[in-house]
Amino acid sequence: MVPTARDGSSLSQLRKGTLEYCVLALLVDQDMYGFDLVKALSEVDGMATPQGTVYPLLARLRKEELVSTQWQESTSGPPRRYYRITAKGRRALKTFVEDWRRFKEAVDTFVERADQ
Amino acid sequence: MSGAERAVKRYLSSVDRALKDAGTDRREEIVEEIETHIREELSRIDGEPTQAQVRALLDQVGEPETIAAQERGHDARPTRFPLRGVAALTLLLAGGLLYFPLGWLVGVLLLWMCDRWDVRDKILGTALVPLGLALPIYVWISGCGTSNPVAAEGRTRYVCDWLNMPRELMIGTVVLLTLTALGMAAYLGKKLRPRGRGYWLPTVLTSPFLVVLIAVGVIGWFSTTETLLKGAGREGEWKVVASWRFQYCLTYQHALGEGGACGLTQSDAISGSPDGRGLKVFLVDDPYSAFSGVVPRGVERIDLVTESGRHISTEFSRVLNITFYAGLAPGTPKVEIVAFNGDEIVVED
After folding, report:
1. How far apart are CA A69 and CA A26, in angstroms?
2. Which residues in chain B have their CB less than 8 angstroms from residue A60's CB?
């Protein structure tokens, strides 16, 4: 695997691997309009990414059937595409959450030494 | 159109361009969503947005290239060259020429083993065209390489041996089969090409179809060896004049001149020749009127007179092109063999 567009920041690399699960997590309780989803992500420091880059990600999640989309009428302007997590998406998220907890603990075990 | 609107349009079209490697549907979807996003942001600005506001907004959305990189990101590793797919297409097209018909069968096997095509593509690839380019070539050589004159409507005309098809129909069939085989390879080759980044090969070689064409050319080069002078060409000896993997053409040197025959193997070619020695002479009156017959070994003089009294000696340059069969074909114009003088026919009216 050859990393592309390396910006040297480990945060950017970490974000790359986890952003999609953050999107899925945002959708667990409610369907979301793309714009609101992007805003919600950009509000959290550390997850902020050029807003436009979320849409290719959403398109991919849809293709992989981790999310589905519905059009909903809007009171202001054209119909909006709402994203909804699918059963497959929930399963993928559940697996990730378990993996993430293990991974986080494992990394903490090492990085805490560096702190001391 | 306001300045803001122009800037947005410009931005969207550069996003669209940057996404050129994504599939059309996907590209439309992403651009549409980004446009909605921008419009939503703009609608939250009181009054007419200033240029600076628009610029800041578009900066937040991100560089078109960054967006495209995210789109490519999930398969960011360089795509491996689709070796199996290219091999499959090459063998489907040209495998039959190399080892008939085994090469083509291996191509079919590879086609079904390759995961870059769906079942529909695989069925099409198998059915169009069986044996690949070998089919039209074989149909042509076996069907029309030698043409039999037959009588029709009071005149003798050429038909192809195979299926007794009229020559024009045969040519159409051969062209159609060839184009279908090439078209199918182009279609399947296009599907081999990945979205996203190219291969590690230079851009010019990234079209799998081009690679296939080059490979077919190379196979053709090595499998066709013309003028293989295996015999010395002395009287009473066979000489291989053309040889493909599935086709041998030989000439037989007679006292009268050369005769020739083609076949799947050398012995096929020899046994398929009219007199078992390959002497084939075809005497042509005009392109649609002809007769044929075997020139017996040792005959030194044949003169011809057609019933119509037509002068045919000028046509004799066509001798050896086509077939001269035993006896007269039914319905051929009556001819009298008068004299055969060297390699020139003298017609005495």
Report:
1. 15
2. 71, 74
Which candidate from A5, A49, A59 shows the least CB-CB separation from B29?
A59
- Inter-chain Cβ pairs, chain A and chain B, closer than 8 A: 80
Residue A52 and residue B72: Cβ atoms within 8 Å?
no
pLDDT greater than 80 at residue B271: no
* Pick from A4, A55, A81: CB nearest B69: A4
Tokens of B50: 């200033």
> Highest mean pLDDT: which of A83-97, B44-58, B90-104?
A83-97
pLDDT of residue B85: 86
Q: Is the pLDDT of residue B126 over 60?
A: yes
Q: Residue written as tokens 């439309």?
A: B28
Instruction: Kindly tell me if the per-residue pLDDT of A105 is higher than 50.
Output: yes
Retrieve residue B111's tokens.
């086609």
Q: What pLDDT was estimated at residue B344? A: 39
With contacts defined as CB-CB under 8 Å, which chain A residues touch B74?
Answer: 60
- Between A16-30, B12-26, B193-207, B251-265, the lowest mean confidence (pLDDT) is in B251-265
Cα dihedral B123, B125, B130, B132, rounded to 10, equals 180
* Nearest CA-CA partner of B104 in B81, B83, B79, B135: B135
Q: What are phi and psi of B226, to 5 degrees?
A: -80, 160
3-state secondary structure of A82: strand
ipTM: 0.83
Query: Rounded distance, CA B112 to CA B317, Å?
Result: 50
* Residue that is written with structure tokens 């931005």 in the block: B11
- Token pair listed for B20: 């050129």
Beta-bridge partners for B290: B284
Given a cut of 90, is residue B21 above it in pLDDT? no
* pTM given for the model: 0.43
Predicted pLDDT of residue B333:
36
Say how far apart CA B224 and CA B336 lie, in whole Å. 41
- Measured CA to CA in angstroms, residue A40 lies from A44, A50, B40, B259 at distances of 7, 13, 15, 86
